């Protein structure tokens, strides 16, 4: 069995967040979706659990970070092409998201991203084949 990952993110308005991510082309698994949580399907092994803040608080004694004021995580999704990176970034902006950074072209990798409605940072990356020697010389500001 492949390892799966479930990223849990607190959201202020679950229905609004579901509409935002639906506009980006993501679907939801109804088995794990209710008034407190929505299971967004990224791939067959990657899921994002959008949890209302009240529900999220039940999983941790720590305070919930305000993603608009501080960064708690950077989420990075690979894309099939540069055009797919730009397309998803454009859809995010059209659906109410923000572009905190300009696109970056590192030669072997193209990046762009967006902030979702709650301020969570999503990086989008398309990587072309990269020779081994380029790994050491890669830009220091590349985070995956």
Question: What would you say about this model in short?
Answer:
With 144 residues, the chain is of the alpha/beta class.
Your description of this structure?
With 144 residues, the protein is an alpha/beta fold. It contains four helices and eight strands, in the order E-H-E-E-E-H-E-H-E-E-E-H. The protein folds into two domains: 62 residues, 2,3-Dihydroxybiphenyl 1,2-Dioxygenase, domain 1, CATH 3.10.180.10; 80 residues, 2,3-Dihydroxybiphenyl 1,2-Dioxygenase, domain 1, CATH 3.10.180.10. The strands form two sheets. The protein has a four-stranded mixed β-sheet with strand order 1-4-3-2. It has a four-stranded mixed β-sheet with strand order 5-8-7-6, with helices on one face. Strand 6 and strand 7 form a beta hairpin. The chain is globular and about 45 Å long.
Secondary structure: number of strands: 8
Which residue ranges are poorly predicted, with pLDDT under 50 across at least 5 consecutive positions? none
Shape: globular
Question: Largest beta sheet, briefly?
Answer: 4 strands, mixed
Mean pLDDT: 90
């Amino acid at each position: 069995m492949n390892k799966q990952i479930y990223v849990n993110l607190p959201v202020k308005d679950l229905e609004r967040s579901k509409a935002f991510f639906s506009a980006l082309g993501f679907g939801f698994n109804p088995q794990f979706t209710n008034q407190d949580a929505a299971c967004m399907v990224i791939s067959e092994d990657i899921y994002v659990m959008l949890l209302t803040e009240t529900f999220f608080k039940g999983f941790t004694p720590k305070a919930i970070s305000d993603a608009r004021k501080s960064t708690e995580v950077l989420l990075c999704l690979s894309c099939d092409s540069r055009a797919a990176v730009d397309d998803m970034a454009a859809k995010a902006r059209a659906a109410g998201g923000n572009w905190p950074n300009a696109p970056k072209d590192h030669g072997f990798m193209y990046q762009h991203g967006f902030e979702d409605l709650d301020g969570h940072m999503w990086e989008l990356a398309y990587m072309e084949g990269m020779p081994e020697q380029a790994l050491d010389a890669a830009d220091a500001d590349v985070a995956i």
